[in-house]
## 1
Amino acid sequence: MPSYTAEVERRSSGRTSLRAQRDKLKASDPAGLADAWAMIEEFWAGTTGWAIELPEPVLHERVDGEWSFVQTQRHLVLVTDCWLRRMVKGIARPYHQWGLAGSWLTSPRKWGLDPDADPSLDLVLDLRKERMAEVGEAIAAAQAADLARVCVPPASPGHPRKAHTMLHCLHVLLKEEWRHHQFAVRDLEILSKRR
């Protein structure tokens, strides 16, 4: 049984690590954003490697009503489609049909989403790989002046509906990636223990 001091140090170390990660997500210059994105890519590479070792049906299971691993990947496709493709790139119809929104989106078909879709893990991971590469390319190409550019959403149905700076759009995307990675790890730990 670990000592009280050892447990306090372990928890403190974990909080320090999380704080450093969150601070990295707040980068306001191209180099800092590139570092933050590299962190996100590294997290997902490791976690996806762990996930694919599990039987695919497990990755479609929900834990405590939360999205499954596959659904989480589909949601992150939508996040990229909203904040990078719609806002930063100005694409009028940026959405892939497999994108997954929360219950706040009451008419997903208006965006071209298919709420009944049930794609395989491999297909979803291929799509995620494409979207993550697109984010990496956009961040790598960004100059400091670009980050202050006001991105106005197209008039087509979608989210967001208000203008935001490119930096804000990238911050939302990074934070969504980071948060959902935390959730995915939590749920994969539970699913792994069930096997």
Note: The longest helix spans residues 166-194.
## 2
Amino acid sequence: MDAELKHADLTDKILRAFYKKVYHQLGYGFLENVYENAMAYELRRMGLNVEQQAKINVYYEGQIVGEYFADLLIESKVIVELKAAKNLTDDHEAQLLNYLRATPYEVGLLINFGPKPDFRRKAFDNERKTSTTWISSAAMLLALASATLLLRFG
């Protein structure tokens, strides 16, 4: 079975920037902010749309219950969480999975600028998510916008 990974071309570019460029030059020992800025710079040089500290709402039963700021959001498709830790932990992975579960984004990369460079790729298809409340919120906003246009322009 030759199943294509969702956003594989994009995650390959991100990982290439990580391993071949940023980690190769900076190595281990800086704060996450340094790596975030370097990754954003390198990914933009590759022609990608990069949003740093992207505000992402977290939904529960149709209500915004919190927000978090993704280190990087690439092409509005892939969440990238950066770490500068000795090792990636189960807690780091659980954090990324929860972000994917509670948002419309389906693919995330957890990248560690530790003594040994490392990453985890996580995917959570929207069809498998038990709560797709952001869809109902987006649909509600679209319906309101349509109603406003109808009232205004008949």
Note: Residues 8-153 form a domain with the Trna Endonuclease; Chain: A, domain 1 fold (CATH 3.40.1350).
## 3
Amino acid sequence: MAPMPEGHQGEGFFATSLNSVIGLARKNSIWPLPFATSCCGIEFMATMGSHYDLARFGSERVGFSPRQCDLLMVMGTIAKKMGPVVKQVYLQMAEPRWVIAVGACASSGGIFDTYSVLQGIDQVVPVDVYVPGCPPRPEAIIDGVLRIQDLVGKESLRRRNSDNYKALLESYGIQ
């Protein structure tokens, strides 16, 4: 059970801020969209299995439609030709949306320092959490999701309308 947000409690009532309630609801109902291209995707499959069970953390529903998901999990080697596809998937997601780069290849290109491999997905979309490893263990992927949950729970409702956030998106060519 999720801990109660800070607030005032009395006989038969509980009062808190709207930010806290919405943050708690978002934090415990993240819908991930896996964008897996190689071995990190296999580790993600293990993470969703019964032994590790990512569903314990509110990520029960793994979606494959960007319009229904709010967490883009990019896993594995991304070729430069796939960069625009990753960006298109990101743009099709509704706000608020978050991104995890899972593994060395998605974070920095990994061992593939070649002309055809994107040296980190942060060249095409803003990344919120990086999960290290080649491939990362399921525990590391779960830790990345927990870090996203911390970000989601503490995020202000007005952050997405701030000038800093708009400037960040404009630096990626996103309106």
Note: The helical segments are 18-27, 39-48, 83-92, 103-108, 138-154, 163-171.
